[in-house]
Amino acid sequence: MPNTSDEDVAHLARLVGLAKSDPDNIRLLSPRDACAVALLLNRLDLLPEPQRHPLAALELLGPAGREMVLDLYHRRAGSDASQDA
Question: What is the CA radius of gyration of the chain?
């Protein structure tokens, strides 16, 4: 199983923030990063044209990319839950 580093996850979190502040910024990202960010933001409309289907986006991410997206998703979900408490 691939291993994601905290630096990789932090980089992805920065990219999510960039696109969240202005969704047009997603055009500046590589297709792989754009897919990861769009999935994390739950914005399928931001997926690059060749990966418009979520499964195509997951395929492009590959095992390491999927693990990193899931890692950040779970970290963010845990952070949201702790803020609600």
Answer: 13
pLDDT tens digits in sequence order for the chain, 85 residues long: 455 688 999 999 999 999 999 999 999 999 999 999 999 999 999 999 999 999 999 999 999 999 999 999 999 888 765 554 4
DSSP secondary structure string, 17-55?
HHHHH-GGGGGGS-HHHHHHHHHHTT-GGGS-GGG-SHH
In this structure, the chain runs to a length of 85
Residue with tokens 């910024």: 25
Note whether 19 and 36 are within 8 A (CB).
no
**Predicted TM-score (pTM) above 0.70:** yes
| Paired tokens of 60 | 């492009």
Of residues 67, 3, 65, 72, the one with CA closest to residue 31? 65
